[in-house]
Every structure is written in structure tokens, then in C-alpha cells.
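#lab-general

N.A. 3:47 PM
ok so I finally got the sequence cleaned up, no stray characters, all 183 residues accounted for. can someone with queue access submit it? mine expired

B.Y. 3:52 PM
send it over

N.A. 3:53 PM
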Amino acid sequence: MGKSAAWKSHMAMGKGAASGNNIVLIGMPGAGKSTVGVVLAKHLGCRFVDSDIVIQEKTGLLLHEIIEKQGLDGFLKVENEINAALEARRSIIATGGSVIYGKEAMRHLKVMGKVVYLKLSYQSIERRLGDLNERGVAVREGQSLLDLYNERVPYYEQYADIILDCEDKMIRDIVAEIKERLS
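B.Y. 4:20 PM
back already:
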């Protein structure tokens, strides 16, 4: 089966990594960026890139190990630098939840493609997440998940080209809605 009309339309925007032919997923940890990204990539016949895995490959450390060794600010610096230099073509890119703190990274990602915010309520995020530290979630000492959620949502909304409410939706419905909104 050929490429979808949405992807053909999106691909017409350019050919290079800096020409905007990618789809970049942002949102809170647990929002489903990686899961949605893999399924969307399969539907559109393109690559999937998980920027957290790219960070781990480039540093040789797990995310929580970077935070333990370099502190939260050190991790955010590494995350910003790696995402600001990320190269991808015809790809779905799932970012880490804290990517929105990196101005250079977000500027670069917005040039690379359409930024889609997978939005969920705080209650849904709280239900989905396990141990924040083990997941490598960038959270400050004494900061609660609710504090983190309230701090990040305005950034997600600011950077998003498309805000997609994912509350109580199946993965296939989210993928279909992204494809529809890109066409």
C-alpha cells in the first residue's frame, strides 16, 4: 500500500533534515509518545526515532544515570545539546518530556517538522507513571508530579503546532487523528 495522503502532503514540505519533513511528539512522561510514534511510523512508512535512546547511545548512560552523575541541570544541558543536533528525515521523533526546557533543541525540532503535543490530564499521567527517578524523569528535589505537570503544560502548548487531546483514546484513534490533522 502506498504512502498516505497526509504523509505525501507533509513530505511535500521539504527533503532535508532541516526542511521540516518530520513529525515531533512532545508531552509528559507517560503520555505515550514512544508508543504512538512507533505505530504512526508504521502507518506512514517512515522511521521512528526516540530521542531518549539517542541520548543514551551518545552518552553511554541511562537517563537516570546521567541525572545521578551530572545533576538535573547537567542532564538538561546534555538533552538540549543532543536534540539541537538531531538529524532525521521522514521520521517520527518521540522526545523526552523535558525537551521543552531546551530553547535550542525546540527551535531545531520546530524547523525539523510539525510538533504534536500529546495532551493528557494530570490524573491520567499520575496513573501511568511509576517511579519518576527510575524512569529518568527530570524532576527537581522536592518537586511533586503535579508541580512538574503544571510547570510543563504551558511549554508544551507554546511549542506545539498541533495539540491533541489523548484522554481516553486508543492508540489507533490517536494515530488516525494525527494523520487527519496533518493532511
